[in-house]
# Entry
Amino acid sequence: MAAQAFGGRVPPPSNGPGGRTEADGPMYMTVDFGRYQGWTLKDLLRHDPDYLRWLYRHSSGVRYRHQIAQMVPDVLPEESLTGKRNKY
# Structure
């Protein structure tokens, strides 16, 4: 129901002091679009890690890719770890 009140977006959690920025570390980089607009990568890691994996692979998440890879190492494509491309 909260998502409907925010136009389909999920309101960011209010868990502590706000005002953190990417300068405080990559986990505090804020998503500026979509259903998780206003959420930090740290909050998304706790709440919806699958969304971070999707964001890493999607073209709209290019600007977050480096930070997500630092936070969630398993999002990296297999080829970047082994040098081999996956057939599928």
User: Anything to note?
Assistant: Residues 2-11+19-77 form one domain. The chain is about 35% helix and 0% strand. The helical segments are 2-5, 41-47, 49-57, 65-71, 78-82.
